[in-house]
Model the fold of this input.
Amino acid sequence: MMSTTATIQLLPLTTEHYPAVSAIYAEGIATGQATFATDVPAWAEWDASHLPHSRVIALSEAGQVAGWAALTPVSGRCVYRGVAEVSVYVGAAHRGRGVGQRLLAQLVAESEQHGIWTLQAGIMRLNAASLRLHEQAGFRLVGVRERLGQLQGQWHDVCLLERRSRVVG
Done:
């Protein structure tokens, strides 16, 4: 289920990992390009808002959490039970090394094992690295939602991407 190489090991994200996960999330918030969130939630809030499956961390050779990925349901309605939103965050010290690609590939595989037929991602237009990452993982641009969200008084366009499973749905 989880894969490993000489440099990165992929493991299930658990409560014990949350201090490192939240630090990486805070780094993403600080970029002003990764999320409209301005605060890192406590574990209980984060845990309740994400699906209980398909939560992954990338662990470096040195034992550091290098990144994480998880899914959020897009709706509580039963007709959308197979649709989830993707979150992928890589720590600043580990970017550009393929960690995001590994995390997203694992997240796709696990999502399909749990009956998810559509993954979607809402990515700020100015986050070129995340857009490339998702496109390389088989996501396609559905459209751009102009001036969708405001962060620190500035409006941002959000690109909506999706990936339909070839094995589920």
User: Anything to note?
Assistant: The helical segments are 18-31, 43-49, 99-113, 128-136. The radius of gyration is 15 Å. The chain has a mean pLDDT of 92. The chain has four helices and seven strands.
